[in-house]
Amino acid sequence: MKTRAYTFLDRRLFQILLIYYLVAYVIDFAATVLIYNQDETSNNVLGQLAIQYVIFFVAKLSYVIGALLLTKKFFEKGTLHWRIVMIHLALAALLSFYTAFIGLLVEIELFSKAITLTIESIYIRGLGGLSFNFFLYFSMIAIVYAYDYFQRKKADDLRASTLKAELLDTKIRALQAQLNPHFLFNSLNDISSLIDDNQTKAQNAIADLSDLLRKTLSLKDSKLILLKDELSLLDTYAKMEKLRYDDKWELVKVIPEGLEEFLIPPLLFQPLLENTIRHGFSEKHQKIKALLRIRKTNDFLEIEVINNGKPLQSQSPLIGNGIGNVLERLDSLFQGNYEFDLSDYTIDDEYFCGSFVVVKLKLPALKKYAN
Asked: Taking the mean position of all CA atoms in its chain, how far away is CA 49?
């Protein structure tokens, strides 16, 4: 049977107990000295008292450590808790009589006092110190149990956090695995439509698809990649789409220098741009111009994918497999710390003027990441 691990008497706990015990004993010794001073007792008696306290300190600390080790054995054997409580009560009482025995022995052997060491003398002195020894014993036991509880809770929280991270990692990998077949299916459909029209273009598209798949396979299980690597994937994808649509589809990238080393999820742009093609063309929209714009604002990367295709108000919702997959991955990676918006916007700048379909993404600007 597997037993639960306990943190009884590790190094840090021992230091805590030692400091607590030392402080308690210094306070008790100081109080005793003040009482003796009021009686104008000689320095010789105070010296004997100091020696006694040092011996008591070592003896009691050894006793409590022994009691804790015994308690650990009971826990490992699965002893019922009420029995352990009874054992602690007995050990706390025994500590007082053990201390009385040590004290009498020291007075007789070291200080040659005319005292008889009997069961009755041990009993009487033990009763006198019972309250202090009970308090000392159970306060130290309480420290041990509290320390053990918080250490186990910390370990449980760490295990839960690790498990959660592993589950998220598994989910992200599964989503990326879904994305590749989805993209491959759409790409093969595009290539098949080229075969009858232009075999040379179809052959080039197959070569580009092979290159893109090789690059995506090289990502392995990367959850985040450099922006420059993602843009390289995007260039290959855009090259494939240009083979099919020629001048009917155009991609413009506006990305300031210095952003290439930031990290983003792999295959992030491809589904967003694929959306401009799948849903942008119509009888009134025979040419699609797509703009990918990225900028850094404070601690976030702001990403926009703008296209002049069919407006959203004339379409059904566009959250299909591709974008849905992107959102699920972002949820798993950033735990809600991102923004997504897909809407019609009125734009007037050097690239567009009018109403356009815009995807807006706001992601944490990350530069260091360990897979």
From this structure: 53
> Residue 34: how many CA atoms within 13 Å on its side-chain side?
6
Only one residue has tokens 């991270």, namely 165
In the chain, what is the straight-line distance between the N-terminal and C-terminal CA atoms, in Å?
A: 37
42 C-beta neighbours (distance < 10 Å), count: 9
The pLDDT of residue 363 is above 50 = yes
Question: Both tokens of residue 30?
Answer: 């100081």
CATH 3.40.640.10, applies to 161-364: no
d(CA 237, CA 205): 10
* pLDDT digit string, tens, across residues 108-155: 777 767 777 788 888 888 888 888 888 888 888 888 888 888 888 888
Asked if 60 and 20 touch (Cβ cutoff 8 Å), the reply is no
340 pLDDT above the threshold of 90: yes
Taken in order 158, 170, 216, 320, the sign of the CA dihedral is negative
Cα(269)–Cα(260) distance, integer angstroms: 15
Sole residue written with tokens 């815009």: 358
Domain extent listing, the chain = 11-128, 161-364
- Residue 322: which of 188, 179, 181, 184 has the closest Cα? 179
* Cα 183 to Cα 161: distance, rounded to the nearest angstrom: 33
- The distance from CA 67 to its chain's CA centroid, rounded to whole angstroms, is 37
Amino acid at 170: T
Q: What is the DSSP string of 255-299?
A: --TT-TTSEE-TT-HHHHHHHHHHHH--SS---EEEEEEEEEETT
Instruction: Give the pLDDT band of residue 371 (cuts 50, 70, 90).
Output: very low
As a whole number, mean pLDDT of residues 54-81 equals: 76
pTM exceeds 0.85: no
Q: How confident is the model at residue 295 (pLDDT cuts 50, 70, 90)?
A: very high
- Estimate the crossing angle of helix 11-38 against helix 43-76, to 10 degrees: 150
